[in-house]
Specification:
- By secondary structure, the chain is an alpha+beta fold.
- The protein has 2 domains: 114 residues, no CATH class; 84 residues, no CATH class.
- The chain is 33% helix and 21% strand.
- It has 8 helices and 11 strands.
- A 3-stranded antiparallel sheet has the order 1-6-5.
- A hairpin with a 2-residue loop joins strand 2 and strand 3.
- Helix 1 runs antiparallel to helix 3.
- The protein starts with 6 loop residues before the first strand and ends in a 12-residue tail after the last helix.
- Bound molecules: iron/sulfur cluster (SF4) (2 copies).
- The site of one iron/sulfur cluster (SF4) has 11 residues, from loops.
Amino acid sequence: MSHEFKTFLTMAQAIDAVATDFGQYGPQPDLFRKIGPLILGNDFKTGILNGVKRAWVRLNRNQPFTPVDDTALGFYFIHVLETSEKDTARIAKICALVFQTPARPGVGEGESGVWIDSHMNEFVCKRCGNCCRKLGNVCLREDRQLWERLGRRDILSWVKEEQLDAGGVQYRIWIDPQTGKPAESCPFLAQTPGKAAFYCAIQAVKPLVCWEYPFTKKHAQHTGCKGFEVNERN
Ligand code: SF4
Ligand code: SF4
């Protein structure tokens, strides 16, 4: 069976995407038991503590194994991925497990990284508008720059610049300029008259995060997107 590998992630982008997955879905014990050996090698094992199956890690061969809760384990995995030697085959295996989709090492844009099969060829948007409601998000600096070049004050007024603890800034969308709080729904979500179908009123200049959504079948399933549900097409 052939797959269409559509999305290329550099190594840094792949690790960021894994971190985002952990942030969005929280601790995923079954997944963490599978990727533990890929990330930590022999410094990872599972064992029983007080009758409960737990992950155990050791910092190096000279240290004893200690049990780790899954929230801390997720952060530790990302730390190790960011600071250890980058191996594209290993990162591809991790991506395949995390995103529940085929992934393979490769080269794109002159950099080595991972090709992800997003299954988007199976995707049909149902225009329910769910993804445009209550899904907190950030846009890129490039999105903001585009809106500035176009003079789109109407869009920019819903973008809030936030300072990050680690330095740098992020741009949160869609923040109500009146209340300073996240909007219940994107202000640019519009309804087709007389139909239970929605569309984007800024389609041509919507942020990249909207172009890429849902990115993977797993993310669609976790965020209430029915775009992969074949029996509801048409
Ligand atoms: S949630 Fe999925 S199906 Fe609904 S509008 Fe968004 S992309 Fe389309
Ligand atoms: S910009 Fe368009 S696609 Fe993005 S959340 Fe708003 S309505 Fe939805």
